[in-house]
Amino acid sequence: MSPHETGSVLVVDDEPEMAIALRETLRRDGYRVSLAQNGREAIEKIAREEYGWVISDVRMPSVDGWELLSRLKEKSPLTRVILMTAYGTVPQAVAAMKQGAVNFLTKPFKAEDLRKILEPPAPDQCEEKAGCAQGSGGRSPWENVSRPIRTRNPAMVRILGMIDAVASTPATILIEGESGTGKELLARYLHERSTRAHRPFVAVNCAALPDNLLESELFGYEKGAFSGAIARKIGKFELAHSGTLLLDEVGEMELALQAKLLRVIQEREIDRVGGTRPVPVDIRIIATTNRNLKEEVRAGRFREDLYYRLRVFPVALPPLRERMEDIPLLAERFRLAFEKEHMAVGPFAPETIELLARHPWPGNVRELENVVTRAAFLAEGRTILPSHVSDLLDPEAENIGRGEECDAGIRPGRSVWEVERELILRTLASCGGNKAQSARLLGINVRTLRNKLSEYGIGGGEGNGEESA
Ligand SMILES: Nc1ncnc2c1ncn2[C@@H]1O[C@H](COP(=O)(O)OP(=O)(O)OP(=O)(O)O)[C@@H](O)[C@H]1O
Ligand SMILES: [Mg+2]
């Protein structure tokens, strides 16, 4: 499509004030703008002239926004469509996105929100940006952010496209995926691509804190709410106001707290612990889980109503072993990152890449990142050879995700306690000490795992509830 065509916009709205205001904004930005009062008029105009963009209201007399969208797909497939929806029409917006609408704006919106959709950063600006490596870099929007997402896997590309389309809606997103698959990275990407990009992004790890602490972390408290509450504390919900709140490992939240979260999502207000009146909050919620939440619902450990509230737009990130084509790409990215951060390093020997590409990566992208970093240190500036990585790859990992069992020293004469302890410790070792991932493989929750570890005299290691940036 020529730049000339990209610069032409058809605004379709039956509200004249809205249409004229949009036309003035767009003209000031240098677009050629035409107006249509409804879908029928729009279709007539499209038949006569090609537009780069159609910005259309959804609810209009005669032909509405949905029908216009499907007619456009047929008649003018290169025209990009922005639908203007009212708050509360998220399910339809998601449906439309699947039909191929480019983007949504929730009324009322600001001129900047519209500009962000019309003028995504040009590819050549990307190279100047930190963290945006050369080569295939900079082509797609998901490589054009502060932390680029690297992939050439079709399923991943589809997911990223859907995330782009849903970013500017207020839809709650649930990201499911094994540990280390890039859930947090995707959440940050979504935030950066949304109209809230310049507002706060706050992350809370629901597995890192015991429940009572998690509650005050999320909701905050008033001075004197309990002994020790010597001053008012503002919770993460309030800190994330007007921005995005990431609830990491939401499946670890206990039932009582789940009920409170449900209330926040439904009422869009929170009650500080010891507070007398609710505080309104405007937040986009992204939840992640590395457990199968549906299973948790079935087992009665997760509220079904909350599950459906969170799953307005579900995303399942595939494990790395299901997107093997990404391994060389990611390995190279982490090698370059190492060079930037630490010291010069040689290239990968082809056999090294082959070895990496065969490993099943139970710890997914994070494990790959760790292995590449450690191998780069071992290579001391020279070519990274298979010998630099082979010791870092746990041979027992070959069994993970492949349905085979590894022998945890099971034989008559050993107690259940002993075998359990050994299985837990070996699983933990194979996950590089990552408790969330180990718990998932063991089929127990993180809390149980932590209790068992302290039973064995191994520290529980409580975090501060926040993921490091
Ligand atoms: N496609 C990708 N491109 C580049 N880097 C990636 C990609 N996916 C993941 N990473 C990197 O891998 C690491 C792990 O990703 P992230 O923390 O998002 O995973 P996660 O799914 O949230 O894991 P956990 O469940 O353990 O919290 C991060 O350093 C992230 O930047
Ligand atoms: Mg995470």
User: What's the name of the CATH homologous superfamily of the largest domain?
Assistant: P-loop containing nucleotide triphosphate hydrolases
Main sheet summary? 5 strands, parallel
Described by the principal axes of the CA atoms, the overall outline is globular
User: N- to C-terminal separation?
Assistant: 39 Å
CATH class of the largest domain: Alpha Beta
How many strands?
A: 14
pLDDT averaged residue by residue: 82
**What is the CA-based Rg, rounded?**
25 Å
What count of domains describes the coordinates? 3
Strand proportion: 5-15%
**What fold name stands as the CATH topology of the largest domain?**
Rossmann fold
Low-confidence stretches: 1-5, 121-138, 400-406, 460-469
Main sheet strand line-up: 2-1-3-4-5
Gross CATH architecture of the largest domain: 3-Layer(aba) Sandwich
By helix and strand content, what is the structural category?
A: alpha/beta
Ligands bound, unique: adenosine-5'-triphosphate, magnesium ion
Helix run count: 21
State the helical fraction.
Answer: 40-55%
